[in-house]
């Protein structure tokens, strides 16, 4: 008995280790993108639905467009050891994405290509006693709805980084530029752009659409690497586009910084419409920008650099230019609701429960509250000289405003506040004031973004003590709020509503469920 | 030319009737009616309502309505879609799972106190009045219990005391009119802990509503319900979700009930006042026609009779004349014959005696 127990005791760590390794192995298998499509299941939503309606370009369709399931066909062909070339012809560099042709010549010709190739293959397959496709018109030409799991895919920083590694830092494998003199695609080091800058949603002249680019260049490379038995990305529809499989794409935890000559820190450079730069030193205040800091928060460069890798001011000039669609620098930086603008992106974070308690009840004013300007717009440093380089100046300024969420020391924060101004039906409410302050500060302490905007110790207080100057001892609520429905202060709630709205709305926005708003005695005892 | 007193008064009367008819036909025509100046209202902010039912309780208390079967602290009753009834002037309903809402939403229902109330326009005994302070009030002393107001109200607010056999009344929110007169707030507004109900002049409430929508564009639908609905209501609502999702009608249009029905209703006074005159006229005319006909008939009959009589007379005369003539001729003939006979009898003496008594012969 003793022997057995000791045996188990010894096997315990071994078993644990083994199971851990097994778990890791499973995880790593799951982490890698599958290189082959999963078994076909008709009931599941699919990512390979293609509507064959190319004849639309020649006029109205005579019959319903064919709903074509691409993976069904690739799987059937692979069983017969047939590959893509069965249906796709080789084009100049890559395989054509069209079926059995390189271009759409005429309605008759394109139609015949489908009818003369699809039907015989279906017929032969059926004759061999295998599962096959339709051979009559309405078999393919019918209105049918197939549930879709298709989702757009983009190359985020993690995926890009994995490609960089796989390509052994050869950026030219994907990145290129058009040389107008030599009239060919060339690679220029340090000028790598996002694919979407040139490859738009539609093919324009010689610049093919993003869709075509991805389905030629990406798939071609994936296939080649698969053929060489190398680690490769998917070469079937769902591998990239199925929402479920997409979520399983391995995410890197530590993504190396992508270098393209960008600064670590810089001064937001204002440019006049003629292209003349506004000397930062000539201005009373400047905006230092922590570029490297922002790189970690965005999923790709495109989050901010939406149309080019240039500095914002190049297109968004002070007065607005055609290149910037006449969106001025001021608007480009401050527009709320625009994802690529500073304030637009920052405001998105305010929807977080930790921020919403205070921020959801703050009105959106245009222009915004001027007190907030100084969080970004800083007076130029005293030590700076006209010879000081912008990035040096930026570093000086950023050093001076390191993000930190500050608050007053505990002895300055009252522990409880007794609200007894109104006590008709209920006893006065004892508010755990210091606990609230501590919770608010603790919630945002880790956030650098919050730290950048809550550096003054009184800023957090302003969540409740609003509309009055920042102060260690702010005015009491009753200083402004009194009787309700005051015709001279139309927009000011009465004292009772001011308290209730402040507490209840903050609790609601922060997801604090107790006490329930309708539970009066949760905050104040009933008078007996 | 002289005018008789009677004719002058006749003209005056016609002119008076003409002006009255003209005005009633164009009432509320091409003008924008925005209610009594400085009339009061309430702004209900759906985003602020916490669903405590305090307003229901206060309403019940200040209006001395019968106690409900379940206490007002029972919040589960809000799960059922309730409406106002003869014992309840206001209800708050809970709306769960409204698209775009983070949690349950609450909507208060009561009389909206239209600027141009449909109930009042439908009431033919003027039991409803739109007061200058904005309240639409009801006078049970004149009500005949037709319940047209209940059908007319687009918000389905007025309720009827069906359980009272002899003194049934229409029951609806009075905007706490008696309290307003005394300078007090409506019961529901006074109790609301979160100022989900804002009380004030309607024009100020519109300003407040616009300010809130403007400062929190993501929080509110850009519409003030009641600003224009049914020509405008004293009670206004702003919400973060479409009003239809809270069971509020969005198909009411901006035209007030009286304006909608003025075309048909403007004819009513004309018909009502002119009908007796018209019928009397028709009666008089038909009477006169009958009389004339009778007279004419009598005259014709008289003429015919006279003619017939004269004709008969003439015939008789003729016949008499002929008879006379025949008689005469017969006499003459007989005389002649007798004379001849006499002449012959003279010769024969015996025949002369019979000739003296001649026999009458028919003519």
Question: Can you offer a commentary on this structure?
Answer:
The complex is a heterodimer of chains A (528) and B (363). With 528 residues, chain A is mainly alpha-helical. Chain A has helices at 2-31, 70-79, 107-127, 137-140, 157-166, 195-198, 210-227, 237-241, 243-247, 291-297, 312-315, 329-334, 342-349, 353-359, 390-400, 433-444, 448-453, 495-510, and strands spanning 49-52, 66-69, 177-179, 184-186, 265-267, 285-286, 288-290, 378-379, 417-419, 429-431. Chain A has a two-stranded antiparallel ribbon with strand order 1-2. Chain A has a two-stranded antiparallel sheet with strand order 3-4. In chain A, strands 5-7 form a two-stranded antiparallel sheet. Chain B has helices spanning 5-25, 54-62, 118-122, 148-152, 177-181, 187-191, 202-215, 257-265, 267-347, and strands spanning 40-45, 91-95, 105-109, 128-130, 136-138, 159-160, 170-171, 197-201, 235-238. In chain B, the strands form 4 sheets. In chain B, strands 8-1-9 form a 3-stranded mixed β-sheet, covered by helices on one side. In chain B, strands 2-3 form a two-stranded antiparallel sheet. In chain B, strands 4-5 form a two-stranded antiparallel ribbon. In chain B, a hairpin with a 5-residue loop joins strand 4 (128-130) and strand 5. Chain B is rod-shaped and about 160 Å long. Residues 18-28 of chain B have low confidence and may be disordered. The A-B interface holds A 360, 363-365, 484-485, 487, 490-491, 493-494, 496-497, 500-501, 504, 508, 517-518, 520 and B 48, 50-52, 75, 102-103, 185, 192-195, 198-201, 204, 207-208, 211, 215-219.
């Amino acid at each position: 008995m003793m022997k057995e127990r000791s045996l188990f005791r010894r096997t315990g760590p071994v078993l644990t280790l083994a199971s851990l390794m097994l778990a890791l192995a499973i995880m790593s298998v799951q982490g890698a993108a599958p290189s082959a499509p999963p078994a076909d299941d008709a009931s599941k939503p699919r990512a390979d639905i293609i509507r064959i309606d190319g004849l639309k370009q020649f006029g109205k369709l005579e019959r319903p467009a064919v709903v074509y399931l691409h993976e069904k066909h690739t799987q059937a062909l692979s069983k017969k050891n047939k590959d893509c070339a069965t249906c796709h012809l080789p084009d100049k560099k890559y395989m054509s994405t069209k079926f059995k042709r390189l271009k759409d010549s005429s309605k008759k010709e394109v139609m015949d290509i489908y009818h003369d190739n699809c039907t015989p293959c279906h017929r032969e397959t059926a004759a061999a006693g295998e599962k096959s496709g339709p051979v009559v018109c309405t078999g393919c030409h019918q209105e049918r709805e197939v549930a879709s799991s298709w989702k757009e895919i983009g190359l985020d920083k993690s995926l890009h980084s994995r490609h960089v590694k796989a390509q052994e830092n050869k950026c030219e494998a994907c990145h290129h530029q058009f040389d107008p003199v030599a009239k060919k695609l060339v690679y220029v080091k340090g000028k790598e752009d996002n694919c979407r800058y040139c490859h738009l949603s539609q093919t324009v002249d010689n610049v093919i659409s993003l869709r075509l680019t991805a389905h030629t260049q990406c798939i071609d490379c994936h296939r080649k690497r698969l053929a060489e038995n190398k680690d490769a990305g998917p070469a079937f529809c769902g591998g990239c586009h199925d929402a479920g499989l997409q979520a399983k794409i391995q995410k890197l935890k530590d993504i190396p910084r992508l270098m393209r000559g960008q600064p670590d820190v810089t001064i937001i450079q204002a440019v006049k419409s003629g292209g003349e730069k506004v000397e930062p030193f000539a201005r009373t205040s400047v905006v230092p920008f922590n570029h490297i800091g922002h790189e970690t928060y965005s999923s790709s460069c495109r989050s901010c650099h939406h149309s080019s890798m240039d500095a914002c001011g190049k297109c968004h000039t002070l007065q607005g230019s055609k290149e910037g669609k006449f969106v001025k620098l001021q608007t480009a930086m401050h527009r709320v609701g625009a994802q690529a603008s500073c304030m637009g992106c920052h405001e998105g974070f305010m929807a977080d429960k930790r921020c919403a308690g205070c921020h959801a009840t703050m009105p959106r004013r245009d222009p915004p509250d001027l007190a907030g300007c100084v969080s970004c717009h800083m007076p130029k440093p005293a030590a700076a000289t006209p010879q000081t380089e912008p990035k040096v100046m930026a570093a000086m300024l950023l050093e001076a405003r390191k993000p930190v969420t500050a608050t007053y020391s505990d002895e300055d924060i009252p522990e409880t506040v007794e609200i007894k101004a109104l006590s008709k039906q209920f006893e006065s409410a004892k508010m755990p004031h210091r606990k609230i302050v501590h919770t608010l500060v603790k919630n945002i302490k880790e956030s650098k973004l919050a730290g950048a905007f809550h550096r003054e110790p009184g800023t957090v207080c302003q969540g409740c003590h609003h509309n009055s100057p920042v102060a260690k001892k702010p005015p009491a609520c009753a200083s402004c709020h009194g009787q309700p429905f005051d015709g001279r202060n139309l927009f000011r709630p009465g004292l009772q509503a001011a308290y209730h709205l402040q507490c209840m709305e903050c609790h609601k926005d922060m997801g604090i469920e107790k006490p329930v708003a309708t539970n009066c005695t949760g905050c104040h005892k009933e008078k007996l | 030319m002289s005018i008789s007193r009677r004719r002058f008064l006749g003209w005056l009367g016609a002119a008076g009737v003409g002006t009255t008819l003209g005005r009633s036909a164009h009432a509320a025509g091409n003008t924008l009616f925005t209610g009594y100046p400085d009339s009061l209202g309430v702004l209900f902010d759906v985003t602020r309502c916490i669903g405590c039912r305090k307003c229901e309780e206060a309403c019940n208390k200040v209006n001395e309505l019968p106690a409900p079967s379940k206490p007002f602290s029972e919040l589960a009753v809000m799960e059922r879609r309730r409406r106002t009834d003869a014992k309840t002037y206001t209800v708050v309903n809970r709306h769960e799972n409204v698209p775009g809402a983070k949690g349950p939403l609450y909507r208060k229902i009561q009389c909206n106190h239209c600027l141009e109330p449909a109930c009042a326009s439908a009431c033919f005994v003027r039991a409803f009045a739109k007061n200058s302070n904005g309240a639409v009030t009801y006078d049970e002393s004149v009500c005949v219990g037709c319940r047209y107001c209940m059908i007319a109200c687009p918000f389905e607010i007025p309720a009827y005391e069906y359980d009272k056999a002899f003194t049934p009344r229409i029951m609806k929110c009075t905007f706490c009119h008696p309290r307003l007169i005394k300078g007090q707030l409506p019961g529901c507004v006074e109790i609301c802990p979160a100022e989900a109900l804002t009380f004030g002049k309607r024009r100020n409430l519109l300003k407040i509503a616009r300010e809130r929508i403007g400062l929190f564009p993501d929080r509110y639908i850009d519409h003030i319900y009641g600003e224009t609905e049914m020509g405008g209501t004293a009670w206004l609502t702003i919400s973060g979700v479409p009003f239809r999702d809270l069971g509020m009608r969005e198909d009411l249009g901006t035209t007030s009930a009286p304006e909608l029905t003025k075309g048909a209703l403007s004819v009513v006074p004309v018909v009502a006042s002119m009908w007796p005159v018209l019928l009397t006229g028709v009666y008089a005319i038909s009477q006169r026609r009958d009389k004339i006909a009778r007279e004419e008939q009598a005259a014709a009959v008289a003429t015919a009779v006279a003619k017939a009589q004269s004709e008969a007379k003439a015939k008789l005369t003729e016949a008499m004349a002929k008879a006379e003539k025949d008689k005469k001729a017969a006499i003459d003939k007989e005389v002649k014959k007798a004379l001849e006979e006499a002449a012959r009898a003279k010769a024969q003496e015996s025949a002369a005696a019979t000739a003296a008594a001649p026999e009458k012969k028919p003519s």
